Every structure is written in C-alpha cells, then in structure tokens.
Amino acid sequence: MIYIVFDFMMAVIMFLFGMWFYKSEGKAANFLSGYNMKSADERKKYDENAMCKAYGKRMMFMSVPFIIGIIIDIQYLGIGCLIAWGIWLIMFVLLLIDRHKRER
C-alpha cells in the first residue's frame, strides 16, 4: 500500500509542478537551473513564457510513469514503483541530453 501512495504522491507533485510552470507565464524560469545564473542580457535572448510552457508539459508528462506504477503496484506490489522510477530516470536523462544539445 505504501508503494501505491508513494507513486500517487510523486505523480501529483510532478503534475502540479508542471501545471505551475505551464501557467506561470514565464515567471517560473528563475527556477530552471543554469538559466537563473545567466545575466540579464543573456536572458533577453530567450522566450521565458515558451520555455516554461515546454518544461511544464515535460513535467506533466513525467508524472505518467508513476500513474503506470500505481496500476502495476496494484497487482505486483513494489514492482510498479521500481519500474516507474526507472522510466522516470530515463526520461530525466533524455531531458538533460536534449537541454545540453539546445544550449550549444
């Protein structure tokens, strides 16, 4: 039961952070690592609203593995949580790779 609750809380947290980024109209850009360390002149080159919407969508999509984990945990307790974290980790690494390519 604890695995199901944990997966549910992670899904809710990821989804709410995604919604917050998506609806922030660019105000959440300061919470993106690396971006918040850029000078004001460098920040003018970026569309903060579009960037927050893109990251918000990604964060909302990153809640899906935990929802799948809940479904698996109902049948196989603990396995769904492990699978959800594995999928989430792969998604996170792909996000970092994509972000590294964009910054070049």
TrEMBL record:
UniProt keyword annotations, A-Z: Membrane, Transmembrane, Transmembrane helix
Pfam family, one: DUF3784
Spans traversing the lipid bilayer: 5-22, 66-97
Annotated protein name in UniProt: DUF3784 domain-containing protein
Organism, as annotated: Blautia intestinalis
